[in-house]
Amino acid sequence: MATKRTYDVAAYVWPSYTGDEPRTRMFWPEGNGEWETVRKATAKFPGHTWPRRPLWGYVNEADPRVMEMQIDAAADHGINVFIYDWYWYDRRPFLEQCLNNGFLAARNNDRMRFYLMWANHDVQSLWDLRLAHVADGNVIWRAAVDRPEFERIADRLIERYFKRPNYYTIDGKPVFMIYEQQNLLDGLGGAKATRDALDWFRGRAVEAGLPGLHLQMCAFQQSFRIAGAAGGPTASPTELVDLLGLDSVSHYQYVHFADIDREYDEIMVDVVAEWQRLDREYAVPYFAHVSMGWDANPRFQTLQRGIVRNNSPEAIERAFRQARAYVDAHPDQPPLITVNSWNEWTETSYLQPDDVHGYGYLEAARRVFVDEVG
Q1: Rounded Cα distance, 128 and 140, in Å
Q2: Where would a tag sit more exposed on the chain, N or C end, judged by fewer CB atoms within 10 A?
């Protein structure tokens, strides 16, 4: 049995399964978020494992009673951190209800910690191409923000979230992940201006009584324009971490760096090699990431290639053990593992129980992160 240790197993939350955000009706007009897509999904080929059904039903995750149930289920199975995808479009937040009205109003949310990933991508091809009534390539919202807007965002984050007792911290500093560094650079005006804005953000946190910030990069893009338009100077991800003074790195999804049209166990060979490469190359900690799978076909009307095969609970359990071994080999780092995800149903990458594997994924997490270390 492994030496007893607590692991911070942090699952991303896609906060779209609610009926409380009017702007989502342009994508899902029935008014209960992306559950509409899940319910309407069809098989794209013989043997396709869609449609799938959630064992908990098409619940409103902005309901604190629903989240009390989900918090207990997560914590009981070793998932002890939620990373909420957090959005800001059209000069205001988007999809905050799942966090604000659901998780933060749940009576038992002290069983879980949480932090935010700013999902600062444009809305053009992420959701709208799945819907016939929205034109291909139509940009609905831009995610890049200028310095005054960035400061509004920073103040909101500090006051509403970072001071909460169950906000996830490293060395006492609230962790804030940023998804698209290029949009951040473009909005703020290049690497130098972005570093200045992030330094201001850290100082603002200290003024608010916090010990600082832990800024985390999502390893997603491979090269960054750091000044001017296309053709100007660029930086690699490792160079950008240094330029911006970021504190750590993790991933969001295997599809961002691996060939996922294969058997899950085959993919994991490349995933572990990627963990090791990033661990060598970055001067800051890399935190191991596990994705449950990938199949985005529920969101599309025509067949999309690139589907993870045989991501059974047994295969996921092996991946969790590999991630745990990575943590054990880095005792000087916080014991953080990121997981995609708690509820990315329409990308077929979720821990929640379904009519295919039942509670198999959660039970795999419990065996690795609770039973074997308890």
Answers
A1: 9
A2: N
